[in-house]
Amino acid sequence: MTDSRTDVTANDLAGRLCDVVGPAGIITDPAEMAGYLTDWRRAYAGNAMAVVRPADTAEVAEVVRLCDQAGVAVVPQGGNTGMCGGAVPDSSGRQLVVSLTRMRRIRDIDVANQTITVDAGTILQSVQEAAAGVGKLFPLSLGAQGSCTIGGNVATNAGGTAVLRYGTMRDLTLGLEVVLADGRIWNGLRGLRKDNTGYDLKQFFIGAEGTLGIITAAVLKLFPAVRSRATAWIAIHTTQAAVDLIGVFRDVAGDRLTGFELMSRQSVEFVVRHSPGVRNPVDGQYSWFALVELSDALPDAGLDAVIELALERAVQHDLVAEAVVASSAAQSAALWALREGISEAQNHEGPSLKHDVTVPVSGIPEFVARTDAALDKVVPGIRIVTYGHVGDGNLHYNLSKPPGSDDDVFRARAADLAGVIYDQISTFNGSISAEHGLGQAKAGILADYKDSCELGLMHDIKTLLDPRGLMNPGKVLPATDYIRP
Predict the structure, then answer these.
(1) Which residue intervals define the domain FAD-binding PCMH-type in the entry (predicted)?
(2) 48, 132, 271, 318: least CB-packed within 10 angstroms?
(3) Pairwise CA distance, residues 207 & 110, whole Å
(4) Using CA atoms in the order 471, 474, 479, 485, what is the torsion angle rounded to 10 degrees?
(5) pLDDT in tens, 441-459
(6) Number of C-alpha atoms within 13 angstroms, CB side, residue 159?
(7) Are 80 and 39 in contact (CB under 8 A)?
(8) What CATH class does 106-224 carry?
(9) Quick check: helix, strand or coil at residue 368?
(10) What is the pTM of this model?
(11) How far, CA to CA in Å, does 415 sit from each of 46, 195, 382, 411?
């Protein structure tokens, strides 16, 4: 490995990087780099001096040391499945993309400790399968689980459909290994549930989107495998009914309540229209739908009886218009297809302006009512595709143009429409990003919605850990706000 103690210039950096990762680990051909320079939605695109693909943590550390000495910014990248452009370089062509996709090792599975230790480039689905292979569960579940990586999941504090029971990646992560901005390696790969030895350093890097260092490995929690499941599709009239309904299910099912998804009629209509073979199992013209799932580690846990009891109580309180309980795994999968197909189905309706927000669960009904009305004033006839994990207050508040209107005219209103949503969010003490992160999409507006003291602390942490501003600049915080000489 190359000794990087001597000064490195940007001009000789490519050769030095090739010495570290080998010819197979560096890409400089523009055509071969193309897939690394735009996100999967093609909403963000940039350029780079090269893409490097280190094979292990030592190579990542050496790459970062060389970049630090040459003054070259580093953009960490996993599966590149993000929604906010957090893993895409800028347009200057002077940044280096560091792809972790060669680092896919399952380092250890400790069944007694209920942990799994994996490289950051490991695909989420591979972690799920490795856990299942020893009779355990890794509960993070995302639509992109076949291509997103654990490093990206940790860096964005991913949530998914089971947050209600298991929490986000912040809750699922026990330890990290991180390459710091100067190339040092912090080894915090401890699978401990209790460790009161000062600051919990891993929390700085979870959700930081690679702006403080590059996550190279993680120790993750495992849980007992799910052996019983019950799923229900429920038609409801109002968002207040949804909030009350989840309270009923919590009281009846306790921690067996794994998922509670809320979907507007508009979102379900899009899926039925554009997803072959998918249908709404109820016929009425209802305004909202809930998808509820219970799970248990016992093979015969009687969950159908539990879900029926909860529905009976909900009917008594006039919360349910109509309900269908899945009688097989295939029927359960068909119900989930209605939820999971929303994002793709909306793309067939023209430009999709996506917003990932959160408010306290109790505030959802008033937030939706106010925001829907405000948006319709800005763009009359706008189609609002609202869905999300209502149990944790997370709504995907996506917008489609009025039928027959011009795509470009609608896109031109994107900032105005986002401002309506985020201004409403601030009045409910919510967040402009629930689980997708900030990336480059929201970095520029963060100061409008963050407390000045909180934002100042974020700047201080960034300056301390990345004084030259070379770690994923322009993401989370505007680059000009924290670059130091």
Answers:
(1) 44-225
(2) 318
(3) 25
(4) 20
(5) 899 899 999 999 999 999 9
(6) 22
(7) yes
(8) alpha beta
(9) helix
(10) 0.92
(11) 21, 44, 15, 9
Of the chain, the percentage scoring pLDDT greater than 70 comes to: 96
Q: How far apart are CA 80 and CA 85, in angstroms?
A: 9
The residues of the chain that CATH labels 3.30.465.10 are: 106-224
Q: Distance between CA atoms of 43 and 319, rounded to whole angstroms?
A: 40
Using CA atoms, how far apart are residues 449 and 459, in angstroms rounded to an integer? 15
Q: How many residues does the chain have?
A: 485
Task: Report whether 248 contacts 315 (CB < 8 A).
Answer: no
99's tokens: 């792809």
| φ, ψ dihedrals at 483, nearest 5° | -70, 130
Two structure tokens written together for 182: 């100067």
Tokens read off for 275: 């997803």
- pLDDT band (50, 70, 90) for residue 485: very low
Residue written as token pair 């910014």: 73
- 284 Cβ contact partners less than 8 Å away, ≥ 6 residues apart: 235, 321, 322
Model confidence at 292: pLDDT above 70: yes
User: What is the domain class of 10-99 according to CATH?
Assistant: alpha beta
Determine the Cα–Cα distance for residues 472 and 77; give it in Å rounded to an integer.
10
Per cent of the chain over pLDDT 90 is 88
Per DSSP, 6 falls in state: S
How many Cα atoms occupy the beta-carbon half-sphere of 376 within 13 Å? 10
Coil/strand/helix, residue 248:
helix
What does DSSP say about strands 356-358 and 74-77: parallel, antiparallel, or unpaired?
A: unpaired
Q: Pull the structure tokens for residue 381.
A: 């006839």
| Separation of alpha carbons 376 and 1, rounded Å | 60
User: What is the crossing angle of helices 303-316 and 239-253, to 10°?
Assistant: 140
Dist CA 233 CA 194 (whole Å): 39
- The Cα 201–Cα 206 span in angstroms is 9
* Spatial distance between the Cα atoms of 435 and 365, rounded to a whole number of angstroms: 20
228-428 domain in CATH 3.30.70.2190? Answer: yes
Residue ranges, CATH 3.30.43.10, the chain: 10-99
Structure tokens at 386: 């609202």
- What the block records as the tokens of 6 is 């001597």
